[in-house]
Amino acid sequence: MKFGILISEGPYTHQAADSAYHFTKAALENGHEIERVFFYHDGVNVGTRLSVPPQDERNLQKDWSALAAEHKIDLVICIAAAQRRGLLDENEAKRQGKDANNIAEGFRISGLGQLIEMGILSDRLMTFGD
Amino acid sequence: MSTLHTVNKSPFATKTLLSCLNHASKGDSILLIEDGVYGALKGSELAEIITTKAKDFSVFLLAPDMKARGINEDKLIENIELVDYAKFVDMAAKHDLNQAWL
Amino acid sequence: MTDTVKKFLYVNRKAPYGTIYALESLEVVLIGAAFDQDVSLAFLDDGVFQLTKGQDTKEIGVKNFSPTYRALGDYEVTKLYVEKESLDERGLSEADLQELVWEDEDDDYAEKPSIHIISRKEMADLMANQDVVLSF
Asked: The whole model's pTM is what?
């Protein structure tokens, strides 16, 4: 099966990004494909390069970046939700005249159309939110 | 056509589980994850209504979330099947549709 | 991909303004309209509050996005299902909701209502018969 994963809540505050991570790992281990992982609402905050969680806790951003790199997973952050919440890649930062960008390795910023497309292309769409 | 419903909130905090039970169709599966696992506690003031409404469906519990919250298997209402993430994936693939109740 | 038409259901169960879900759900619907899928919107539980008329947000300083629902017809999003039991539980009726219409170009552009009040059972059936369910 091709799974599309929608993550609608931010890291640490909600369990959504963790549950989605474990589900995605299990799906890959079972031979399924991940069409895309789409981050919406506060979920965009999973993709910040600047988080420094305590050393003895999991690092959600690094975990997702590593999983994506290992399995070539498309991690997409919604641009509208990201702009609201201050997640910018280099291009966006330049375009918006901001003095910094903060997106993490392996994540890309794109439009909401990518969510709809994920729904069309996937066999199953899973939502992890609140 | 059958649906896998996931519920991630405690029924003591919100009405989400009850709403899910009110909208599921015969043959659907309901998987309690995250704080949703509290919906499977026996002896709670919601246990009876949950058990009654759940009769037409198969109810599952994500064991990792249950263990995390210190819930023992013997504290659960009847006919709840424990699953792990691998089985969660299986169920998501086998049902035609997935609906998350947030 | 452009040939695939799936039945998409957007499930709205939360009230507007207290959280962002209602607004950002609507934003998905508007963008999604360009993909020519078979789109339905479901409003149940507190989601029915999203469609009430007379929303005036001036004094809380946030944008009143309720007029956007009136534009849905122009985006060919014409199927908005509101659950009767959810309205009843909240002491609301159809009269409390905005009047949303769409123009049927196959019927001389006749104006038709976009909102359909349906029962809980009908809502369950609607949900069961989708290809993709997006919950917010």
From this structure: 0.97
